[in-house]
């Protein structure tokens, strides 16, 4: 049986179970969480998120004090025809994690999405706005949120948007390829959100974890802060703005042409407005986030984020 508590600098450090280590956010978390505890990733422990029994066994064997669920079914289009699998990964797995976390007194950090909203609001969405998903993916993620909240374990649900990085399949890497291969290409200009670097998500998550470890009573600290938060970069852009900025930073001369979403039909409907208001997160944890284009430049230049985690003023 693995020990779930270590000691560092005279203070107990947790065993952290991290799912999705090969994804964009999980990969960055492996780096950001260094020094905050002993991180165990699923590849090493045989975790299968599509199998509830596997989740139960792993959590009971490892006895983690903190579970960070960075894994998800994110194939938005394919989810329309793979509803059962999307719900199994995005709703049922988090539900089982929450049940086991409550049973053991552990904390669960879970990531969700802007796609829980229908995009009809003209201002950024706050956490208390009514969720109205437009797609199977959005419904499955909302079901996961509600399952965790209903269980009532100590938890953070962190909604983010338009996640990108230099790893895996994402909008950034697709645009870099198109900017290199084509003289011109079209990008939707009537959907808006905050492009968010996976490193931003990981850094802010780690900052929150570090705060909890410094608390004299960690249980009370989490009890006072458990809930739903929005976590994105600052600012707002259209997909066309995002693509044009990528091309410009990369030194491409390709003509990035704006089009309406109606000219690019998809199986899954997407929200026109994905902007999320992150004031609650910043106020609660003393954070601020980089502007989306400043973070994008850091990502493309291969440099670390600037100091974005200092107390907000």
Automatic annotation (TrEMBL):
<protein>
    <recommendedName>
        <fullName>dTDP-4-dehydrorhamnose reductase</fullName>
        <ecNumber>1.1.1.133</ecNumber>
    </recommendedName>
</protein>
<keyword id="KW-0560">Oxidoreductase</keyword>
<dbReference type="InterPro" id="IPR036291">
    <property type="entry name" value="NAD(P)-bd_dom_sf"/>
</dbReference>
<comment type="pathway">
    <text>Carbohydrate biosynthesis; dTDP-L-rhamnose biosynthesis.</text>
</comment>
<dbReference type="Pfam" id="PF04321">
    <property type="entry name" value="RmlD_sub_bind"/>
</dbReference>
<dbReference type="InterPro" id="IPR005913">
    <property type="entry name" value="dTDP_dehydrorham_reduct"/>
</dbReference>
<dbReference type="InterPro" id="IPR029903">
    <property type="entry name" value="RmlD-like-bd"/>
</dbReference>
<dbReference type="GO" id="GO:0019305">
    <property type="term" value="P:dTDP-rhamnose biosynthetic process"/>
</dbReference>
<comment type="similarity">
    <text>Belongs to the dTDP-4-dehydrorhamnose reductase family.</text>
</comment>
<dbReference type="GO" id="GO:0005829">
    <property type="term" value="C:cytosol"/>
</dbReference>
<feature type="domain" description="RmlD-like substrate binding">
    <location>
        <begin position="16"/>
        <end position="302"/>
    </location>
</feature>
<dbReference type="GO" id="GO:0008831">
    <property type="term" value="F:dTDP-4-dehydrorhamnose reductase activity"/>
</dbReference>
<comment type="function">
    <text>Catalyzes the reduction of dTDP-6-deoxy-L-lyxo-4-hexulose to yield dTDP-L-rhamnose.</text>
</comment>
<keyword id="KW-0521">NADP</keyword>
